[in-house]
Amino acid sequence: MKCLLLANESAEVLFYWTDTEFEQRVQEQYGVSQEEGERLPAFEDSINTLFAPIIISCSTMVDRLGDNYTSFSTENNHIYVLHQFEECLYIAVNGDGDETEEDLKRKIFVMKKLTEIMFGMVTFSGALLRKELRPQDTEQRNRLWKKLRSLLETYSRLRENDQSFLVEAVERLIHPTLCEQCIEFLERRLVQQINSNMDRMGEEVLHAFILVHTKLLAFYSSRNASNLYSSDLLALIILVQDLYPSKINLDETSELESSSVPEVFYTPEPSPPERESVRQRGDSPPVFQFVDPDVQMAEDSLQTLEAPTPDPSAPSRVFLESKECPMPHSMYCLPLWPGITLVLLTKVFFYYKTSKAKTICTVSMSYLFIYLFIYLKSTFTSQLQNAWTDFKNKAFSRSGSGFTRDLLPSCRNMKTQLCGVYRQFFAAECMGSSQRLAPHLQERALSMVQEKLMDWKDFLLVKSKRNITMEFPGLIHFIYVDRSNGQMIAPSLNVTDRTVSELGKGPLADFIKKKVWSLVATAQRYLQKGYATVTLRDGDYFYCYFLWFENETGYKLEVIDIPSSPDDGAPVGMLTCDYYRKLLRYYSKKHQNEVVKCYELFTVHLGVIPNEYILQHCSQLARKLWEPTRIPLL
Amino acid sequence: MAETAALAYSRRFFFLYDSSKVQEEEDRTREGIYYFSPEDTPVDQQELLCGQLAGVCRCVSEMSSSPVRLLRLRKSKYAVRMKDSFLWALSCVVDIPDVSVCDLLDQLIALFCFYNGPVRQSYQLYSKEDLALRWARYLCHLQGGSTELHNIFSCVRTIDSTHIDPLLLLKAALILQACQRCPLVLAGCILYRGRVVSTQMTPALTMKVMVYETQTYSQDFRVTANGLSSSVGSPSSFTATTQVFLTPTELYMLRCHPVDRACRSHCSQPPCQPSKSRFLSRTLSDTPTTDTDSSSLDCPPVSYQTMPSSPRSSLSDEPYFSPIPSRVNTPLHSNLMNQSEYFTPDSHDHGTLNGTNLCAVKESLAGLNIKQDTDASSGSETKSEGLNSDQDTQSDEIKALANGYEQSNCLDNHSDHDNQIQNEENKLDANNHVANKNGKFQGETEEEARTKSKQVEGRLKEKYEPRNTPSPHETLADTSLVPSVLYQHRVRGLVLALLVEPEFNTDPTAREEVHHSSMASLNGLEAHLRNTSPGTPGPPGPYTFAHYDCIQNTLTTNVCGRSAGPQEAFVRATKLLHSHFSHLDTLQEAIVRLGSAVYGTRSMAQETYFLQQGTPVRNSGSPDPQDSAFSLPRKARQRLLKHGVNLL
Q1: Rounded CA gap, B155 and B152, in Å?
Q2: ipTM strictly over 0.90?
Q3: Closest Cα to residue B340, out of B425, B438, B435, B264?
Q4: Which of B55, B59, B625 sits opposite A616 (nearest CB)?
């Protein structure tokens, strides 16, 4: 029984997602009519009615007490988590025990991240976000909500099954030679060719990468590209997985060949009965009713066909973090084979507009640095000009209130105006434009890489399932994360190879998986409070968690007291507000003359192994795993 | 730490809100506020908090079809209880473990019900102002832990046994045992200056009894607003009784004592069964009586049933140290005894509401609930006399309630006291009558009770949490509370508190019996305890520790009131670990490090936390077998032995 919804301050639902159980429960409670056609608005209404008292109470609490609800839990263990971003309130509900409070909070932050990826800084303004999330046109809205719901479900699926989404770090395929070859190929052949081609229509490939399922084979960034943050890369993997989902089933290597995944998605010629079902779904409420993975696949395929841009060569618009503000990029997902995807990220040129818009964004990111306005006044819209004058009068003039709380409304007003400018420059224009790499250029890129990897494809698919193995008696599982580059290494949990053969399938594997998931959650909870070393003896197992810092040469730096984060802060992770980037920045302040790296190690051992052996294992593991992470990314 | 704790707790809100008083548009929120603490909170803020929280809780509980239990805000959190139209909420700072604040609220409600009976009824009988005083007192009592740790574990404060001659503890235990020879005495405890010396009750009950003690002690033995009319004459020594209300579980626990013995003779316990102490008390009274009292074990239960059921049993005729177990003379007992055949052997390990005795609790609950069912359905006559009917109580009974059944006597003036008792007898007769009736009814429906208990079992299992606090459902279920009497005998700082059957009040012989049998010993014990120097605590070792006994609900620690530096770090880690332990049953031990490492370990019976002081050796936090943090378990084992903590 799950639900997630976004509402603005006037208790208007901007977006919601529910699972079937929740929907049924609501319908039972409200006796919503089951008639076709009437159903959709009625369900939305009942969601609105249900949550309105909570939403209204939230604003009252904020206004009058300066405090706000962050969660409720009931005696039957239903959990409600609330979080306010700007003028938007997010509420996540779980009533089936699958998710903890922490999980729900994370889901909210991920949802927020996804909207940022889709709308950039427009999300900073409640009014503008409302425009984006609730378009007047019902059909358009349904399409958008469906897309968002699908993304949310893809995330939940990955979070539940994929270790890289558990620890929120990108997993790389450990094959240095091939990796290097691919990077070279991407750089010298692919990106160079596209960027020098006349048909690129003003687009420039900045980043190119190849994914095998969710794992990264090779990644190349062009010289004039700004850094692609791990949080964005993870979010992009969600987008790719949403378009071309991998079956994350236990022991699926044999099924890979037979699973008819991406081609089907990519061919806009579904069989007539499927077409039929698409239409039907369009009329039914936009609530997902996934039962088993196979059904989900089918659903997702229809999803793609119904996407806002039915044209497969059209890129998705994504906003990626940069130093100044989220900048729009075009993302092209080219499926090489089922499970293997080439992704190109291009920058759209705005020529003269870009520089000015960028400056404005810098301002709006920290909108108290007003002085920049003075240079930009001439390009202001009149509303922004007015807002600025109003702010200036209040803040700096003698009769004004100065920098007090009373300044907030004018700040807010200015922020809205700035977001409006941002939207005008980036979002609206990009969204509407049909600018894209010529389809034949995309096809060319696809076939080039296909050719290059033809002989490797089967190997890669298998490798992605057995990335790394390590023999330590008594060691059951480990995850090693390099937080400086946002990458992780871990044995697959669902593989039948020697190390983990006993855990390959069935209840034990599932049990271990649960243990690993809870270990990571526990470690993150302690880390949030500042605890960087945790060992636990739980049942028959012994768990370790270590976080430490090194310099570039691998010299281990002295431990520091990590500040404890507030309970209502962002959850520890990279996809959501990038905790580790902040942590590294914090540590670097004390080691300004050297490059600081941050590592984490999670291990699960059998409890019968004496502690000193376990610790020895851990230290050996950390040493051994240090090497693979040295594989150059560029 | 005391200061920070005080600060943290000073921002604590507690309120009781009745939404049924605020139904119409024109009703003001303040009508529904029964109690709000701190009381100097501006009314509009009270209204704001109560209104918003009650509204939002109602909305959530309707959506989830279940009451809200915990509500978090960014800067604080509230433990919540919802029952009928009532809502209790108790706030604390965010870093207090959820389990602690929820326990605290449950204890608070349980305390109120213990002294005042069902909430709705109390507010019919007494004014808001009177009851506000009581809420404030209970709140103050529960939050008055000497360190923050005491509040987190909400433990019973005990005297420091390391500085006391063990013989004194033995003596205290014997006094309690001697009192139990009076069949009307259920169980007792001895307190010295607000700390437990010896108790036969569960920690939860002991805690409740202690409030009364502390309150009377601190108020210079004056008449209190609690309806306690007492203390005429010598202030250094007096006895008093007050009415209290027990939950069916508590009552069962107190009365099942003879069942236990009787049954042990019948059903052979599995040898692997760990024999837990019956009352889990700190006295010797619960050392395995099975072995020593084997003669009494041979008595078949039938013989108990033939015992006279009159409370006026010839107590004086009974020889002291009679092997015949006390308190077997009410029909309810014999009934329970019969039922006991259906208990699993586990059920004999009662004490705290621990997993092992769940079965027994369930049985008793089922039985008692059914008793009410029959009460309700068996016509107006019984209803009006029923203990549990709160509306139709006879006027006499109301009067009695208003007086709290309290009686006092002066040591020097027994005849006065006797007269007084005579006067009260009429009122109390009704009570006895009912008690007998109840027993009869239960006897009739025993069969039904068993079948129903099976149904109840499932539901209980779901909701059951192994806690020391009584099941809140039970406390909140107003109607199930059973009146009982708390007898108190004070000798200066020493208090003997006994839970007795209501008939005790009308039985001057019994009173005298108990009084005389204990007076001399109490005086002696008090003199000894007074002369025992509190013992200056030795220099705190180069380590900090806390040892929590989950069964006795006691805490041993060398964290003093004011803590800073490593102690503060220790308390912080302890809070986190305690919370973790409470969520994850399988977790046995943990080491966590932020600056200095803290080691926590737990078993079914205890939780221990340990921090080694001294400047931590430079380390990187990377996995390293030489890391001193991982030698903590060994150090803890060595160091804590001398504090009587065995971690082996």
Answers
A1: 8
A2: no
A3: B264
A4: B625
